[in-house]
Backbone:
């Protein structure tokens, strides 16, 4: 069967040509369209307006410092109570040693964990962050989610402004985008009622931006949300970026069903994944980057996503890293991709591989810490 051009996309293309932001209704049309050819063409054009033929990757280390968590999110296969036999709670020394296990040639340290009452405190994190900054001045700290920061603020009875000021002083460069899930109040009452709500998630990122802390944003899709709620999520992110610029990238997070209370929802399809990448690129016109996180959708879908608006494939992860959040939920993507493989996959897809850090400063592919502080490379777009 031949799929005809979707008339809804013709109207959307006219809006894009006029430089207009798309509406929530436009977002629903993009998420629903069977016309993947036109959708991909529009998203690739938008990607090229932002980053040309560049596709970014980062040499990083990824650590889940604890899986002890009392948020009880219905989609989560990762969390444990402290009494569970497979609970993990790393000491500061353990986290530091893990980060340096395979040397120091990386530009981002990415750490997230659970709502752990013993580990998620300023007493634990501030000294550890300063220790990392002293030992690894070339590495950006990409730590916490807004949900973790909300937990920190409530635990210490401090405002978001004070908490984020202290984290920034200790060396926080970037907030990870997790915890956003879907902003809809209806959705959150079903799926994550104990976690920070959507309005406060946005507030935390906006306060962080005012402190000079960059951030990413995400959406967990493929459970009980509607297409209207997905599209509303994009509009709210775009409005937040207008109020307080500082988001670098948006990352679509596909739901994985193994071992959690929402396993009847099933995995997302490849077509749904591609529609999400393209819709994100077209809706989020004030976000510079859309990330295809290879550990979630897999390398093959991520290569295709580069033709549907994505311009980033995330990071190598260290060869001894153990990502637990998605692997607990059934992903079979592996743990590590060599940076040479990233460059090969990106080049084979028809794009130019570019090494970056959390805030998209660009480095020569062969830069190493022993070469001295990095000489940032200008990349034409």
Residues:
């Amino acid at each position: 069967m031949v799929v005809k051009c979707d008339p809804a996309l013709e109207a959307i293309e006219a809006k894009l040509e006029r430089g207009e932001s798309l509406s929530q209704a436009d977002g629903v049309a993009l998420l629903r369209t069977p016309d993947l050819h036109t959708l991909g063409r529009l998203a690739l054009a938008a990607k090229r307006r932002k980053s040309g033929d560049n596709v970014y990757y980062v040499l990083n280390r990824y650590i889940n410092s604890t899986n002890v968590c009392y948020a009880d999110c219905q989609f989560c296969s990762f969390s444990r109570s402290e009494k569970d036999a497979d609970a993990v709670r790393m000491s500061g020394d353990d986290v530091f040693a893990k980060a340096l296990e395979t040397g120091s040639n990386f530009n981002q340290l990415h750490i997230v964990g659970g709502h752990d009452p013993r580990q998620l405190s300023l007493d634990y994190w501030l000294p550890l962050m300063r220790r990392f900054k002293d030992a690894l001045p070339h590495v950006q700290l990409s730590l916490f989610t807004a949900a973790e920061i909300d937990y920190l603020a409530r635990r210490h009875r401090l405002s978001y402004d004070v908490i984020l000021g202290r984290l920034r002083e200790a060396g926080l460069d970037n907030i990870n985008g997790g915890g956003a899930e879907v902003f809809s109040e209806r959705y959150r009452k079903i799926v994550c009622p104990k976690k920070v709500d959507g309005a406060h998630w946005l507030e935390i990122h906006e306060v962080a931006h005012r402190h000079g802390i960059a951030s990413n944003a995400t959406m967990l899709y493929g459970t009980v949300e509607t297409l209207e709620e997905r599209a509303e999520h994009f509009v709210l992110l775009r409005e937040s970026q207008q109020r307080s610029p500082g988001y670098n990238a948006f990352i679509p997070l596909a739901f994985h069903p193994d071992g959690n209370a929402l396993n009847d929802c099933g995995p997302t399809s490849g077509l749904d994944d591609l529609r999400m990448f393209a819709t994100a690129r077209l809706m989020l016109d004030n976000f510079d980057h859309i990330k295809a996180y290879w550990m979630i959708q897999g390398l093959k879908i991520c290569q295709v996503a580069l033709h549907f608006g994505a311009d980033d494939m995330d990071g190598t992860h260290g060869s001894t890293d153990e990502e637990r959040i998605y692997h607990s939920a059934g992903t079979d993507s592996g743990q590590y991709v060599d940076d040479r493989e990233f460059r090969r996959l990106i080049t084979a897809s028809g794009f130019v591989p570019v090494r970056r850090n959390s805030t998209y400063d660009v480095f020569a592919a062969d830069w190493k810490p022993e070469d001295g502080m990095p000489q940032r490379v200008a990349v034409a777009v």
User: Anything to note?
Assistant: The longest strand covers residues 214-221. The first helix runs from residue 7 to 17. The chain has one domain: 7-371. The chain is about 40% helix and 15% strand.
